Amino acid sequence: MRKQSKTKERLINVVKIFLVFSILMAGGAFIWVSTFNIPDFDSFTNRQVQQSTKIYDRTGEIVLYDLNRDIRRTRVDLDEISENLIHASIAIEDSSFYKHHGIEPTAILRAVLTNLRSLQFEQGGSTITQQVVKNTLLTSEKTIPRKLKEWILAIRIDSELDKDTILEIYLNETPYGGRVYGAEEAADRYFGKAASDLSITESAYLAALPQAPTYYWNNRDQLEKRKDKVLQEMRSNGFITNNEYVEALKEEVTFLSRGDTSIRAPHFVFYIQEYLEERYGTSGIERQGLKVVTTLDYNLQQQAEKILAEYGEENDRRFNASNASLVAINPKNGQIISMVGSREYNNEEIQGNFNTATSPRQPGSSFKPFVYATAFNRGYTPNTIVFDLPTQFSVNCSPSKLTSDDGCFSPGNYDERFRGPISLRDALAQSVNVPAVKTFHLAGMNDSLDTATNMGISTLNKDTNEYGLSLVLGSGEVTLLEITSAYGVFANDGIRHPYTGIIRIENAEGDVLEEFEENPEQVISSNTARLISDILSDNVARTPSFGSNSPLFFPNRDVAAKTGTTNNYLDLWTIGYSPTVAVGVWSGNNDNSPVNGEVAGFVVAPMWQEFMQIAIEEMGEETFKTPQQENVSNFKPILRGEWQGGYYNENLLIGGIHNILHWVNKKNPRGPIPSNPTTDPQYENWEYSVRKWVEGDDFNEVKDDITNPSIDSFDSSTASESFLVVTTNLQPSYSRNQRVRIEAKNTNTIDQLELYINGSQIDIDESQPFSVSFTPDKVSGIEEGDNTLLIRGTDKNNNQEEIVHIFSID
Q1: Among residues 630, 629, 563, which one has the least CA distance to residue 602?
Q2: 483 conformational bin, left if phi > 0, alpha if psi -120 to 50, beta if neither
Q3: What separation, in Å, do the N-terminal and C-terminal C-alpha atoms of the chain show?
Q4: Is 411 within 8 Å of 471 (Cβ atoms)?
Q5: Which of 123, 404, 418, 532 has the highest local Cβ count within 10 Å?
Q6: What's the pLDDT band for 671 if we cut at 50, 70, 90?
Q7: Cα(507)–Cα(514) distance, rounded to whole angstroms?
Q8: 146 — pLDDT class (breaks 50, 70, 90)
Q9: In angstroms, how far apart are the furthest CA atoms of the chain?
Q10: What's the CA dihedral at 403, 405, 410, 413 to 10 degrees?
Q11: Are 50 and 289 in contact (CB under 8 A)?
């Protein structure tokens, strides 16, 4: 009994202490709140736009856009606004509007808990009344004192004005995007009708906008989702029936054009405006009179718009590629210097006001460098050999099933041919698909995705299993802005600067609210970045696929480049960089219709090249840093570019011809040879294609006297000083479709191998295993009669030897 009494006494004391603490806290809060400088309530009826926010180029002198110029407001009474819009606004913004007294305690509590979990002041549980306060009396800064002021004023307004008046003010003051304020102007601007005539679906669209008008207008897929959410809330709150809900979802709504000739660099401007709205609030940027100095180089912007307009019109006519976008970034600091979201902003036929530069698209082969960079980080070398052969990559399918149906995956190459053994350098430079998929497996799917994410790609947020090995071929989605920024990491020695469009923001009094600061981070090793730049700027390695004088080649300048084409020809890319500027160009159609079966080199690369030339002139010319040269003498043959065996015995390669997984543990390629390589799930499939190749006719073009001692070597001279020896038994005649491959036997002696036919250079190889090839039907100038084949070798001392061979065509 005594024990229960003591327990009760302790409980009473705890309650007393809690009450005293609560009273003290409440008193402190009251004193704190009493110090707030709360706007005079009388100013509520006399509110007006105070200052004009202007967006400038990087010089701070050229005005790109005046956000408050010609602001459109038309006040109407509540009964002149469609009930559909009234209901839609209440449903999505404040479903208990007619029940609370200015604030909604449960919503506030929910927002507080969310903010405590995230440790950020992101949510405020705003009612319509609070939004009226925010839009008319306060700034939109996200601080606790400002939020408390908002609550106090919301309660006062709710006590002095009836609900319909508050709702009328809200619907007349709410920003609906650009310079459009209020329901009447929004209805006229977007649908060409009065606010009283809005349908349920039109009302749902308008009610969806105020949360982030610029973002939703420029991201129509997200606007669609939020519109659907508004309709769901209208149904849940009893504003529409289920039948009306179903019909509203089906209704096709046509928006009027948002054409505006008073804006310079419109896509970039609205990109910046979206940032300002998120940071300072729509009403805040309207009233604070901000001076926003951006990173945009307006001279380069004008050049970009001109180039895309000219090429875009031609590409539309020739290739059915109606649209194009461009982004240019300074890789040394991440500043966006040019952004063209569509080739013509006011062109309604191509949905020109849509910003494709910030819209996720499949990148095709332009994603490959992130995978190869991961492989180099893991210890693979540019000379590492993989086999470009028809290969089934699904472990659930038979190795002999070389198709991509029924869950199987056996990709082809863009040119519909396979090259046999190929180095990672040549495979990346020539954008060959099968070696890329193998490299993806070797590099690791998760590690490759981490590399892309660390370099700035944020849109690949799915489990890699959802993509599978096709991710290396561009099956995921990226934005042009992010992938251009990520390529800038290669340009900047592996150091990433997050992209930004802001240099400085000042308020009307000249106070600096924010200013650009560099935030560098080393996200890949400098040598890996240099290796990628060295490969993507290697015109010799690229030549067999793109020719020696493609738009990717800049004579006497260091420029790296990569193209990308999706397999359905929906998206065409060219991304490239010098040490001073990274430029990405996309082409296609905003309605996702395909281009007429052309690869990016024909459609995108020419306009990319023209802008790149101009950008380098302005940004300055520099050279890439040379990759570190490793001593490869102790490397496995397969990592050195030698594929005819796995190890040496008295200077002879032995061990047989196998796929790379036979010789390396994919996670530790420079470690011991695997004791049981078949444990790798891809081993059998890769090995099957190699065995079939060795057994077939194609192998006879490249095997030498090590793998088949009976084959004759063709020697240019019997003299002891002769250094050029090839392993191909040259024939007196060839069929037109026969692929002829000529390989140097003594790869440690020569430094370069060249192939000429009838005086024209056909191929050149400057890296091991030193091979050149040709297919007669694909070489212009070959005649039915005699043709002259010349093989020229150059050694490390620049001495040259030649083999001359006469052949005819069957």
Answers
A1: 563
A2: alpha
A3: 115
A4: no
A5: 532
A6: very high
A7: 10
A8: low
A9: 121
A10: 80
A11: yes
Q: Among 378-392, 598-612, 674-688, 746-760, which is the least confidently predicted range?
A: 746-760
Of 377, 464, 458, 429, the C-alpha closest to 543 is 429
Cβ atoms of residues 570 and 595 within 8 Å: yes
CA distances from 473 to 106, 267, 342, 366 (A): 49, 29, 25, 8
Whether the CB-CB separation of 512 and 505 falls below 8 Å is answered with yes
Count of residues making up the chain:
810
Q: How confident is the model at residue 808 (pLDDT cuts 50, 70, 90)?
A: confident
- Identity at 539, one-letter amino acid code: N
Q: Could you tell me if 517 and 496 are in contact, meaning their C-beta atoms sit under 8 angstroms apart?
A: no
Contact 391, 686 (CB under 8 A): yes
Q: Tally Cβ neighbours within 10 Å of residue 477.
A: 15
CA distance 233 to 238: 9
Q: How far apart are CA 456 and CA 373, in angstroms?
A: 14
Q: d(Cα 490, Cα 496) in Å, to the nearest integer?
A: 9
Structure tokens that stand for 208 in this block: 């969806």
Residues 6+ apart with CB under 8 A from 212: 274, 277, 278
Binned at pLDDT 50, 70 and 90, residue 598 comes out as low
Please give the pLDDT value at position 114. 54
Tokens of 676: 């049981």
Radius of gyration of the chain (CA): 33
Strands (E), 189-237: none
CB atoms within 10 A of CB 631: 6
d(C-alpha 364, C-alpha 370), whole Å: 12
Q: Taking Cα atoms as reference points, which of 213, 148, 137, 226 lies closest to residue 174?
A: 213
Residue pair 734/716 in contact by the 8 Å Cβ criterion: no
* Token pair listed for 604: 């995108």
Task: Match 């799930």 to its residue by tokens.
Answer: 681
Half-sphere exposure of 480 (CA within 13 A, CB side): 29
What's residue 375's pLDDT?
98
Cα 764 to Cα 42, 249, 713, 793, distances in angstroms: 82, 60, 20, 10
Beta strands in 258-406 (DSSP E): 291-294, 323-329, 336-340, 385-388
Residue 204 and residue 237: Cα distance in Å, rounded? Answer: 14
pLDDT band at 377 (very low <50, low <70, confident <90, very high): very high
**What percent of the chain is predicted at pLDDT more than 90?**
46
Indicate the residue type of 383: N
How far apart are alpha carbons 658 and 439 in whole angstroms? Answer: 16
Helix, strand or coil, per DSSP, at residue 757: strand
Q: What's the chain's average pLDDT?
A: 83
Please compute the mean of the pLDDT values over residues 394-410 and round it to a whole number: 91
